[in-house]
Amino acid sequence: MPVIHANSCNLHYESVGSGEPIVFLHGESHSTRLFDKQLGHFSERYRCIAYDRRGHGQSEVPAYGYSVWNQIGDLRKLFDALEIDRATIVAVAMSTPIAVWFALRHPERVKALVLSSWYELDGFPLLEERRKTHQLSFADLHLKFRDVLLEHGRDGLEDFIEENYRTVLPILPPDKPEVRRRLVEIFAGHAAEHYVQAGEYYTSIPFLREELRRITSPILGICGTEDPSPDRPELLADLPNFRQEWIPGARRFTMMEYPDVFNEVLEAFLLENTARTVSA
């Protein structure tokens, strides 16, 4: 299992293919499994890297260090360890603040940003206002996950999520049971400590939406038309290096629900930026 040591934490990663690098960042309580269809597709032409963020999946679960600021450091260590000079970053949901802040901090290392479901850029506590369709707050939901896991085990947590997703996780697709099953496994696939430490990350997210105006590299937003907390690209309508794409019928996990459509949108963006670089 490939591992890098970053900021006192061992991070599991996958690296496949060769060519220009694409770094995939999963959101909170997700894992690299989110990008199975992307790694297989894009590794034919690109070097694709995905990693389990600290506390997630197969990565180490340290007692602290989950703030956005610290996870920017994790990402920089990944770039350094894998000798990535510059990459396109594809971030999903609650990892979009890491990607945006990394681009602000290290603009020379970001060729382009792809932000899939980026309402979390509103930061804490504003983003909680966008989650009113959820029965529980982010913190309460994760504490509930921990309690169910400790009392009933992983199978019990998977059953709880599947039975209650319409109220506690309405971001899961109701019309795609096979995809939802994989997502339930991902959400339930973490150590009990993760569901507490996720709160350190969540409460550290600043308001970053307006900071996108400081980024000069191309930015693509992607969102499902059925996402309960949809993106609001009209707020960035005057940003010349930003555009938004919508995937009809999808909720939060566009890359899993409609992988072929997601890959087509992403590939067009990558080729567009390659052409721009060559012409420059």
What class do helices, strands and sheet pairing give?
alpha/beta
| Oligomerization | single chain
How much is the average pLDDT? 94
Note the total helix count. 9
Total strand segments: 8
How would the global form be characterised?
A: globular
- Which strand order does the major sheet show? 1-2-4-3-5-6-7-8
* Proper CATH architecture of the domain at 3-123 and 206-279: 3-Layer(aba) Sandwich
In percent, how helical is the residue content? 25-40%
- Output the CATH homologous superfamily of the domain at 3-123 and 206-279: Alpha/Beta hydrolase fold, catalytic domain
What share of the residues does DSSP label as strand, in percent?
15-25%
CATH class of the domain at 3-123 and 206-279: Alpha Beta
What does the radius of gyration come to?
18 Å
Distance between the termini: 40 Å
Q: What does the largest sheet look like?
A: 8 strands, mixed
- CATH topology grouping of the domain at 3-123 and 206-279: Rossmann fold
Residue stretches low in confidence (pLDDT < 50, at least 5 long) are none
Please provide the ordered H/E string of secondary-structure elements: EEEHEHEHEHHHHEEHH
Would you mind describing this structure in some detail?
This protein is an alpha/beta fold and 280 residues long. It has a domain at 3-123 and 206-279: Rossmann fold (3-Layer(aba) Sandwich), CATH 3.40.50.1820. It is 40% helix and 17% strand. The chain is built from nine helices and eight strands. The protein has an eight-stranded mixed beta sheet with strand order 1-2-4-3-5-6-7-8, with helices on both faces. The radius of gyration is 18 Å and the shape is globular. The N and C termini lie far apart (40 Å). The relative contact order is 0.15. The mean pLDDT is 94.
